[in-house]
Amino acid sequence: MEAHHTDRLVARDLTQVYGDGPFATRALDGVGLIVEPGESVAIMGPSGSGKTTLLHVLAGILTPTSGSVGWRGADLATLPDTDRTRLRRTDFGFVFQSGRLLPELPAVENAALPLMLAGVPRASAVAIARAELGRLGLGGLEERRPGELSGGQAQRVAIARALVGHPGVIFADEPTGALDQTTGQEVLSVLTAAAAANGASLVIVTHDAGVARHCTRTVTMRDGRIVREHVAAPRTVPGGAL
Ligand SMILES: Nc1ncnc2c1ncn2[C@@H]1O[C@H](COP(=O)(O)OP(=O)(O)OP(=O)(O)O)[C@@H](O)[C@H]1O
Fold first, then answer.
1. What domains does the chain contain, in order, with CATH numbers?
2. Band of the pLDDT at 240, cuts 50, 70, 90?
3. 111-114: long-range contacts at Cβ-Cβ below 8 A with a sequence spacing of 24 or more?
4. What ipTM score was computed for the predicted complex, to two decimals?
5. Cα Rg, the chain, nearest whole Å
6. Is CB count within 10 Å lower at the N or C end of the chain?
7. Residue 70 burial by CB count (10 A; 0-12/13-18/19+): exposed, middle or buried?
8. Atom 28 of ligand 1 has which residue's CA nearest to it?
9. Sheet bearing 9-18, strands edge to edge
10. What secondary structure letter does DSSP report for 7?
11. Residue nearest to ligand 1 atom 24, measured at CA
């Protein structure tokens, strides 16, 4: 599906305060961020700087204390819970550090799950999931359960699951955190390539500067604020004008 200009995710002046009184933590302190269609944004910063909180607010998992998150004409910050949950299922995909696959289901059913939750008939959902697993290099492993896959393979199943519904944005929280360096790089290449091929934007929380290098933009957080933004230089062809 082609990206529309409304597929821009626009967060304005977000604050998130956990708890109250002397125990209050201001996890987000006036954050603004625009994610353009097809863009990949890495969110970096020290532990406790608010990265996961920001991801959860952008994805409509968490309602911020104040501020707005505009997406396709809606404001996720004020949308009623049921609408927000529905929108999250249809418009967004998620990849977490440990995959969070259901251990008792084969890979293909894990990948098909979001479609089945959205009401797609089982046979079609499984066929779409099978094709997506094939594109991600997992042909032949469709019937394996997560415990019978390597960490990198399991994470590819999680990526397939994030992609099957053709989301506008994929959110990933430390997607390579549990993998060794080489496998992590492979999984990341798969994730960024698949998001681009699907026209989906990508928002990744990571501690790994190697991950950030795969993204078009990096924002750095500190104490609940974005303190730095870095846009990747366009790739140039060595030695020549093309
Ligand atoms: N549910 C919660 N209740 C209270 N405080 C919380 C909660 N979740 C996060 N915090 C606090 O909010 C701040 C930001 O947390 P957050 O998890 O967003 O940071 P982070 O940058 O993702 O950290 P890390 O890199 O360690 O995962 C921290 O001070 C944290 O202790």
1. 5-231 (3.40.50.300)
2. very low
3. 111/157, 111/160, 111/161, 111/164, 112/161, 112/164, 113/161, 114/89, 114/161, 114/164, 114/165
4. 0.97
5. 18
6. C
7. middle
8. 48
9. 25-35, 9-18, 66-71, 74-75
10. G
11. 47
